[in-house]
Amino acid sequence: MPKHVAVLAGDGIGPEVTAEAVKVLRAVDPTLEFEDALVGGAAYDDGGHPLPASTLDLCKKSDAVLLGAVGGPKWDHVEPAHLRPEVGALLALRAELHLFANVRPAKTLKPLLNASPLKGAAGLVDMVVMRELTGGIYFGQPRERRDGGKTAVDTCIYSVHEVERIAEQAFMIARTRRHEIVSVDKANVLETSRLWREVVSDMAAKNPDVKVTHMLVDNCAMQLVRNPQQFDVILTENMFGDILSDEASMITGSLGLLPSASLSAMREGGMFGLYEPIHGSAPDIAGQQRANPIAAILSGAMMLRYTFGDNEGATRIEAAVEETLDAGLRTADIFEKGTRLVSTQEMGQAIVTRLG
Ligand code: IPM
Ligand code: MG
């Protein structure tokens, strides 16, 4: 069965880091077939839209999408605003491809333990933020200005179905880990959070092999700094997940090195998914071979695991990344005295040679 991967390199450092991820993926699985398409500012400059119909079609007929990064100051003021890369490409891809489950692992890479702003206090962190990605205040209607522009309205909506399907994914992931879910909400204030908590509690009762607790989002933000090791899987809604996943990743000290997966329904063999580094397009260093390709490469590992069911291939990539860091190779973002500074391509190549 052919395995089709759409490669949407995008803007800024996107093309450089995805090139290395493709190199690593080819080395692990020569049967993968890659096809490139334009997205983001690059697509806007080319044809006036950050998500051309041809790109969306390619994604729909592929098994997985590898995305670099979109956006940059050049397109921050594009009008109308729905043509800006973040909204017009990223949010549109999530909605059009029904990518409701966002998996954001926050794991300390041992060689970078001291890069955490919490220093030794954070210890080895290994958690996953499961963020609902196609609902809540990001997509609720109405969203408008009223009173001649003096009032603005956003709407937060969740249905039982939306909460159930993301919670189901969280249970599945928890079973591959420490069997613990902390469901995060603001049930002391928000109606959507009370619904969220009811649905998750019902599912917890039916799945006693996983320990489920509930935590208010403000407390969770605090607990993440106080004792991040207590978390295994954090399950939460769209905007809370946006904020908490940034916090969680920073705590690991590996912010620029972390991958993510955005998944939709099961297909034969695995889940359709879009895989991307959590870092942005970093236009200030674009085109200079200074970007760190590790987040993109680890996103490729997640692709093998979730879409193609190749856990072994994924583990090989993860081990090669850790070995390369252990050997002291560093791109500029994580360089420190006593380590060896390498370019984007050199880092990619070093990982390929350590694939074992
Ligand atoms: C993210 C980003 C996006 C989000 C922005 C760029 C729309 O912050 O993927 O976390 O808020 O979801
Ligand atoms: Mg974010």
Q: How does this model look, in words?
A:
- With 356 residues, the protein is an alpha/beta fold.
- It folds into two domains: 1-109 and 252-356, 3-Layer(aba) Sandwich (Isopropylmalate Dehydrogenase), CATH 3.40.718.10; 126-237, no CATH class.
- It is built from eleven helices and 14 strands.
- The chain has helices at 14-28, 41-47, 53-61, 85-96, 160-175, 191-206, 217-226, 238-252, 294-306, 311-326, 344-353, and strands spanning 3-10, 32-36, 64-69, 101-107, 126-132, 140-146, 151-155, 180-185, 211-216, 233-236, 259-267, 270-277, 329-330, 340-341.
- Strands 2-1-3-12-11-4-5-10-8-9 form a ten-stranded mixed beta sheet, with helices on both faces. It has a two-stranded antiparallel ribbon with strand order 6-7. It has a two-stranded parallel ribbon with strand order 13-14.
- 3-isopropylmalic acid binds at residues 86, 90-91, 242.
